[in-house]
Give the backbone structure.
Amino acid sequence: MTKNNILIIGAGLSGTCLARQLLKKGHAVQLIDRGENHSTAIAAGMMNPMVFRRMNKSWRLDEFVKEAKAFYLEMEELLQQPLFHPLVIRRMLSSEQERNYWLERERLPEFQEYLTPITPEDEAYSQADNPFGSGRVNAAFWIDAHAFYHANLNQFFDQNMLLKESFDAAQFDAEHLSYKGVNYDKVVFCVGYEQMNTPFFSELPIQQTKGQTLRIRSNEIPENESLNRKCFVLPLGDQVFRIGATYEWDNPDLTPTEEAKNELVNHLSVLGNYDYEIIDQQVGIRPTVLDRRPILGEHQHYKNIYLFNGLGTKGYLMAPTLSRELSECMLEGTPLDKEISIERFYRKSK
């Protein structure tokens, strides 16, 4: 096997997962990251198997969830850091229609791994407002996004695989694939919401989607499950919870707002009249795509320059599988799924 020397610009979720896939295949990796990841700041790291509006499974769920669990448990061993936290999500059903969707789905074989049949105890659940009953979602989990980012970053740095700096486009030679005089076989941009300010892929439709969450402390909210309706309530331990999240399209501003805080407080009140204190308010910018699918693939003109971006809110579910698929595309020529391929935008521009 020919050993490639690969430059990855950005060591957030996509860049880190891709680096890990490439290292497992025996290739050399150099990452560039300045150590300020504003997508990680908002990421709850939650993997919810369901899309509740019509009670459907998340896109490619069955294949994603198996590989994601194995990947993050492997990362725990590698980094000697607890990252993977199994989770039960209790959905407080929002309407009679949603309840009927659930009752239909729970009988189907393809949903039985994810939806627990509603019991009388679920109907009578009393720790949150419960006008249409509740149901439990299984096979969910959350990843400690802050720990995942920083533990990987520190290990990459210790192993001389990380340049702690901003990418300097003036020192990148696209024709010869060199950066600061060092030549590479392939280059991958994993730059999140800053893609529109990056050469080569700025014309592609990555949106800058501001999100805000709250951390609260409460002795009244249950810690054994994640409550969900209008917002998510993620138990972090020691009676601390994360409440999220807001969506503000085309807004790269990193200032927390009173409007977002009030929105989250109002959404939490839908679940119950809990006593709590607000610890802090967190802000981040997500890279999202209008068609809700990530963008992966090679530049239409520059050979061996790639993009991996747009993971959005399901990023921690999708990243392990999609990073493997991109590595196979780069190294073995394996075609990418048409739903995620960069070609879908290049075709439109022709």
